UniProtKB/TrEMBL annotation:
Name under which the protein is recorded: G/U mismatch-specific uracil-DNA glycosylase
Molecular function as annotated in GO: pyrimidine-specific mismatch base pair DNA N-glycosylase activity; uracil DNA N-glycosylase activity
GO BP of this protein: base-excision repair, AP site formation
PANTHER family for the chain: G/T AND G/U MISMATCH-SPECIFIC DNA GLYCOSYLASE, G_T MISMATCH-SPECIFIC THYMINE DNA GLYCOSYLASE
Signal peptide: none
The organism of origin for this protein: Flavobacterium frigoris
Domain of life (superkingdom): Bacteria
Annotated Uracil-DNA glycosylase-like domain residues: 7-153
Keyword line: DNA damage, DNA repair, Hydrolase
NCBIfam families xref list: hypoxanDNAglyco
DNA-binding among keywords: no
Length: 158
């Protein structure tokens, strides 16, 4: 059984970015999107005007929070061999009802990949008052170029 991380959400959060479950490297380092070939942080730093990506996880989170972004995963825990979402089984979803009650300013969810959206929609459906965006996965398993991922992800922040 593997377990996700706590959410990084505060009372200024308006946009919640949701992955499915951290990969092996992220779990080892205890940091979201820690695999050096994952494009997530490069996309965030490029979109928000910083050319140098911090090596310090807390600074990465501060960048998100300074732009009213929060970060979490759809799943609280699951069984999975490796890092691929297709190998997930016996999953339990995070408690989004409590999250949205505690942080009512969240009005947009950006799903990092189709699988995170699929797991969320299966359990919670469409939540009134929240706009959904399903973005290409930033995972190295998604072979789409960085430039294409960046172009598509940028549409969420216009």
């Amino acid at each position: 059984m593997i377990t996700s991380f706590p959410h990084f959400v505060n009372h200024q959060t308006q946009i919640l970015i949701l992955g499915t479950m951290p990969g092996v490297v992220s779990l080892e380092k205890q940091e979201y999107y820690a695999h050096k070939r994952n494009h997530f942080w490069k996309i965030m730093y490029t979109l928000f005007g910083n050319s140098h990506i911090s090596e310090i996880f807390e600074e990465k989170i501060k960048l998100l929070q300074s732009h009213k972004l929060g970060l979490w995963d759809v799943l609280e825990n699951c069984e999975r061999k490796g890092s691929l979402d297709i190998h997930i089984k016996n999953q339990k979803e995070n408690d989004f009802e409590s999250l949205f009650n505690e942080f009512p300013s969240i009005h947009k969810i950006i799903f990092n990949g189709k699988e995170s959206h699929r797991y969320f929609a299966k359990k919670f459906g469409k939540i009134e008052g929240i706009t959904y965006y399903v973005m290409p996965s930033t995972s190295p398993a998604n072979t789409m170029s960085f430039e294409n991922k960046l172009k598509i992800w940028s549409t969420c922040f216009q």
